[in-house]
Design a protein that fits this description.
Blueprint lengths: L6 E5 L3 H14 L4 E5 L2 H10 L5 E5 L7 H10 L8 E5 L4 H9 L4 E4 L4 H15 L3 H4 L2 H4 E2 L7
Parallel strand pairs: 1-2, 1-3, 3-4, 4-5, 5-6
Helix pairs in contact: 1-5, 2-3
Amino acid sequence: MKNSSINILIADDDNDDVLMLTEALQDNLPSCKCIHKQDGIAALRHIKTDVNPDIVFLDVNMPLKDGINCLKDIYNHNLLPTTPIVIWSTSQNMKDIKIADEYGAAFYIIKPTSFSEFKKIIKRAIELLGKPKSERVDKSNFVLRETSYYN
């Protein structure tokens, strides 16, 4: 993934998680610009009315519209056909993971317990996003978690 002028949309209602993700992204992509929205409705409004982001991060558990339903809307309305969308959550719910895959998410990140592990996962995601889509949609690369980057 190129390092120049990357716009990243983060939809998450937990400000601590947003700060953690922003810092991890800026460690890997120093010139990125992170835009934060509190819920899926605000994220969709941003997507429909502003400059399209280069990457989108959607938390699964948000008020008003959760990340899975936001992803479905993006997919069903073909709003971001070439933009990687990353679902992230503390949940390891297989139903959510399966739906995220079916609706075109680039990855499903399971939020780790430590910031250092999180930075490693984000680094791995950025590396994979730089590869052709056919290389990163392999099922072994879809769910990123604390141990997945060791495989």
